[in-house]
Amino acid sequence: MPDSVILRNAKLKGADFSPFQDIYIKDGIISDLRPSSEKARFNCDCPSFDLEGKYLFPGIFESHIHGSIGIDLNHIDEEKLGRFSSYLASRGVTSFFASIVSEKEEKLLELLRFYAGTAEKDLSGARLAGIHLEGPWISPLRTGAIAAEHLKSPDPETLDRYQEAAQGWIRYITIAPELDGALELIEKAALEGIVAGLGHTEADYDLGREAIARGAKVATHFGNAMPRPHQRRPGLVGAILESKLHLELIFDGVHIHPANLRLIARTVSHERIIGISDATMARGLPVGDYHLGDMEIRVSEGISRLKDSDVLAGSTLDSMDAIQNAAEILNADLNEVYPFFSSNPAGLFSQNTAKIEVGKRADLAAFDEKFKLSDTWVDGRHVFSGVV
Q1: What whole-number distance in Å separates Cα of residue 140 and Cα of residue 387?
Q2: In the chain, what is the straight-line distance between the N-terminal and C-terminal CA atoms, in Å?
Q3: Which fold has domain 59-348?
Q4: Is the overall model pTM greater than 0.90, yes or no?
Q5: For the segment 361-381, what is each residue's pLDDT rounded down to a tens digit?
Q6: Which pLDDT does position 15 carry in this prediction?
């Protein structure tokens, strides 16, 4: 793979530059951008790639995902992770967090060590940008599709032990603030640069406000696995909406009704919305029985639920479908909702990605005018081509 590459005739949108740009990428970083009309000459004798006027977007960042194409991120090896990474790149995703649900202590430490050992490697597709722990610090009353027998009470020593095994790659934890020790753990996470998400919780309005004041930064799959608001008890939902907290939203029209998605988008600034898939191993596969961690799930009519139950268990949502769903549901242009899936999570999780400007990582996705993916680059490496 060359150290440098030039992308020519990329169509960009923005007020500060010509819509067609030539982009010089060096060592995985965007080094220079110039209008294509100037027939830009860069100080580089390196390969070039002509986009022929295709739209170039920052790559999608999947910050909450459990699997796809038969691969569950709780049951993983190097071969599976490579296939998963390549699949994500074929869907415009350039980086992701490995979302792990609660496990036995020995198995969880093994998973953390595995991901730590692969995080610095160049995968065949999307980059592993960190680890998300969805549990073990969640309410036994709001487990959803997470095995309750592996839950733990929050304590700083446990997080230290997990982070040591993960070599610092835990970037996001989901926590129920009503648990003993949870508020202290949220404070610790904030001090250590770990994003604490409120989710799988019975917390009320006052406790929600306290958790946010202590340093919580995001609502894990907002509206799901948390109490519903009441006209005299605004609950955690009310505390989140009136704060500046980020909100994870699943734009499948199932986890949150489209009308509620519109209300949320009118209530909070769009910079606070984090679009996620929360996808399980069933994404990209037909109707059938699968699993999420230790839990058996069943997919019917595109909806993933616990087997023999009405409880939702992640989703089968595709990243690009989610973007198009968001635009349709919110009656918005794709360019308005695309940041939900790129720059918004990148900003929340301090990733040097999701903007096409000098100094940013060259994580890029090219689309045609019908929003069909053409090519994907990760750190300037061409990892997917839609050309047959």
Answers
A1: 48
A2: 21
A3: TIM Barrel (3.20.20)
A4: yes
A5: 999 999 999 999 999 999 999
A6: 45
